[in-house]
Amino acid sequence: MIRDDLSTPHCRVEQEGNYLVVTLARPEAKNALSSAMLLGMYRSWRALDDEDGLLCAILTGEGDTFCAGMDLKKGMQSTPEDEAFMALMAEVPDAHWQALLRHNVPKKPLILAVEGFALAGGTEMLQGTDIRVAAEDAVFGITEVQRGLYPVGGSSIRLRRQIPYCVAAEMLLLGERVTAQEAKGFGLINHVVPKGQALARAKEIAGRIGRNGPLSVKALTRALREIEACVPESDALAKELEIGWPLFGTKDAKEGMKAFKEKRDPNFTGE
Asked: According to the 3-state scheme, what is the secondary structure of 112-134?
């Protein structure tokens, strides 16, 4: 079981079976970012890496908005309630970037469940996740340019690697919003579901991941993280063998093949 001190006033962290549900919980402010929220996310991602019993996590938002990005009324200045996060930043200067999935992304899969708006930092965090589910009314956008700001959460680099270049350029330079249907059309998200059903679909996906071999899931996620599309194919294939070949000697691999032969579900142990 996870530690009971992961949650904060603006980030609720719960364990369901072998996955986490991390909920941005500041609906009165459209889940705009706060230090308390960043602290909860940072703790969650590091716990996901550290706990062998966890296989993936879902990131979602409470209410009718996933995340409206930075709190433009407050900015990112600290308040008396932010002391815990400031103390963390003194020890881990890039803790805010880790929380926002800009780098040091967890070594296990992240599933995104979006209802409503995912703007600015909301769409920036999206790019650090692996499988993305959105309600039919979801809206995405990298809107910083409209406020004279810059999307320092990684979008000027990541977005063009994840969707066609010209679409990324238009999203970045115009700052205009796109619908869930448009986002699915150019590959920014995986699934569009009826309003109110994003988290349910994300949990279904997490459950399916959880039934797979844990060592296989971790190895495949490592390959997704470490082997960039720009790496020459020969180098990438060599890295693939480095990551994947050792699995064939594991107990789980033997169990998986035995279960197939016996026409039953495998009983994986992560060994």
From this structure: EEECEEEECHHHHHHCCCCEEEE
The whole-angstrom separation of Cα 222 and Cα 238 is: 14
- Residue 242 is among the residues annotated as catalytic for this protein: no
For residues 61 and 51, give the distance between their C-alpha atoms in angstroms, rounded to a whole number.
23
pLDDT at residue number 3: 74
Mean pLDDT by runs of 10 across the 271 residues of the chain is 83 96 96 94 96 96 94 61 86 96 96 97 97 98 95 96 97 97 98 98 97 96 92 94 97 96 95 95
Q: Tell me which of 28, 83, 115, 124 is the catalytic residue.
A: 124
Select which of 144, 176, 228, 271 is catalytic: 144
- DSSP states along 21-84: EEEE--GGGTT-B-HHHHHHHHHHHHHHHH-TT--EEEEEESTTEEE--B-TTTTT---GGGHH
Its pTM stands at: 0.94
Question: 124 an active-site residue?
Answer: yes
SS3 category, 246? helix
123 closest CA partner among 147, 100, 106: 100
Contact status, residue 73 vs residue 35, Cβ threshold 8 Å: no
**Average pLDDT across the chain, whole number:** 94
Pairwise CA distance, residues 200 & 198, whole Å: 6
Q: Tell me the C-alpha distance between 230 and 62, whole Å.
A: 37
What does the pLDDT read at residue 1?
66
